[in-house]
Write a structure and sequence with these properties.
The protein is mainly α and about 230 residues long. The chain has nine helices and two strands; from the N terminus they run H-H-H-H-H-E-H-H-E-H-H. Strands 1-2 form a two-stranded antiparallel ribbon. Helix 5 packs parallel to helix 7.
Amino acid sequence: MILVWLVHLYTASGVVLALLAARAVIDADYRAAFFWLWLQVVVDATDGVLARRAHVVERVPWFDGATLDQIVDYLTYAFVPALVVWRALLVPGGWTIPVASAMLLASAYGFSRKDAKTSDHYFTGWPSYWNVAVFYLLVLRWPPAINAAILLALATLVFIPIRYVYPSRMPVLKVTTNVLGAIWAASMLVMLWQYPVVSPVVLWASLVFVVYYHAVSFALNVRRRGAASS
């Protein structure tokens, strides 16, 4: 039983990481903020495996670890990145609150869908990876108007029921995805270390996994719809 609660505590540690990240954002220490968010991605990628091995659902059926996970994810994947958009002025000054609000409202909708995570391990709608999107915009230093257009486009994609793969539980290409994901996570850590002057080689190499993730998701959607119509 102790092991079960340690697993839940491990998941819940994400709220503390969210607090540390938010404090860093307010202090305009974006490297520290995204380091805490990076740690949360590591927790999020591993707590599910630990929960299944500890049989947390069977041993403590009255405690909903999935709800806890959703709370943590909303704070770290949506709220803190929206805070960065506001604090770092990534979009035109008059658009900071509207764009950040669009991110938060879209994610509130996405997280609340009953089919947000499907039984065959897909996300429905763009899965609110705002921590990743905002970090890249911070590093790339594109014009604020372009940043606003990108963020609003991603907020729109949350509502479009395209299915995106769940990296840690992919039904196909699992080994390839895990290897590329591990390399991507390492590259993100390197960029955090280098920030604010990031190596272009590391930056563009890291984007390979981002492109791969979306390409595989779209390809599987096309295949699934083709199979359904045949």
